[in-house]
Amino acid sequence: MPTINYEFLMLRPPGPKPHFLIGNMPLASRNPLAVFSKWSAEFGDIFYYRAAWIQVYFLNHPELIEAVLVRNYQNFLKDHVIRKSRWFFGEGLLTNEGESWLRQRRLSQPAFHRDRIASYARIMTGYASQMLDSWKQDETLDIHQEMMQLTLRIVVRALFNVEAEQIGPISTALNVMMRNSTGVRLLLPPATRYLPTPAMIQFRRAVRRLDETVCGIIAARRRNEIDSGDLLSMLTQARDEDGGRMTDKQLRDEVMTFLLAGHETTALTLTWTWYLLAQHPADEEKLHAELERVLAGRVPEFSDLPKLTFAEQVIKESMRLYPPAWSVARTVISEFELRGYKIPAGSNVVMSQWIMHRDPRYFPDPEEFDPSRWATERTRKLPRFAYFPFGGGPRQCIGNSFAMMEATLLLATIAQRFRLSAVSNEAVVPVPSFTLRPKTGIRMSPHVLRTEVPA
Ligand code: HEM
User: Fold this and answer.
1) 326 and which of 26, 63, 354, 449 could share a cystine (Cβ 3.0–4.6 Å)?
2) Is 61 part of a structural domain of the chain?
């Protein structure tokens, strides 16, 4: 009797019913996050769908995520969305691969050392205080825009140590670029970048202006190689074991990457935090009590961070419910196996913080904003990839300590002086674009708690 080969039965995980031509297009739906949540609930730890010609394996279990990001990371490349953004980021850390990535990561790592980033604490609280001086009681602010401006000024200063007047052109160019670079535009074929539409002309001009400014600053730094205490100094002076240094092009690419990766994500963390705190007065109260106890009216410093435990829990809980990086994705280099399924070369694996962070197996009452859950034994013992706002494995976010310090210090500085309330009761819609942005900003009003805070 001929033997029957049952291997095909395990070829693909379950998944949603596809349209015969286009498959499934969750990102084009009205509410992609709801679609992913529904499929995850229905199909479990691993499911499959095809978006046109792109094969996607969606992983919803910490062990599967660890298998990709840690145990077999060399079998994966960054996914096509990240690869397409190379025309702008070049070969910066976010987009780079292989040996070249490893060398650049080693050269950049010391710039993010604890002692180094500690020296940026004053820049962070200083710019926050300046912003607060301009806020008026009960006015209406788009808190997302306020946080974007603030974190941009901080990252520009930490990167270049440039004076305020040089921040202006960088900030303007970046704003134009962010306005014009939705996730979809990044995916368009390269030729569309040269279309003579007003938006693309404005976009190209902004990229050119930003390039010129950044390259000008790098050239000036090359001529005068003193340590200005900023990240660029560390990067220009870094040497690998063979004494090799970064070229100007490599410096440009890393700096562009830090500029963009280093401010929007932290701004979003704070934006969503204000949104959540405004809906949870008891937690807001608890935060104010901690700030009163630890700071008693002082501007926070780096050395206060270990004592601002509830503030840190608030940030962690906010990144659980509204992770600024809502997913990470990879393209498979050679076929491999997960849970008995063959995952073919060229297909994509997606791991979503939005989904994992709401998994009731790890977070009871997952939709509930409860910062205190981070003080429990249960949460301390979570599997590594039940919560991964900064990714993980060798490609983990290089700026995670910088970001945690910044978010906690800014939260403390702002919450000490103002309470923020929502202007309307409308639910804010999170849009899973490159990052998780509020669809139309978030309108909030500041209410004065303290008029001045001694430094
Ligand atoms: C709350 C704030 C932040 C969040 C949530 C965040 C999240 C992430 C995530 C999830 C990744 C991994 C992406 C992947 O595996 O595909 C990543 C990578 C990266 N992040 Fe962040 N990030 C934040 C802040 C920052 C800051 C402040 C900087 C720099 C100043 C930064 C620079 C980078 C870079 C350069 C990479 C690529 C690292 C590599 O592949 O070697 N990020 N970030």
Assistant:
1) 354
2) no
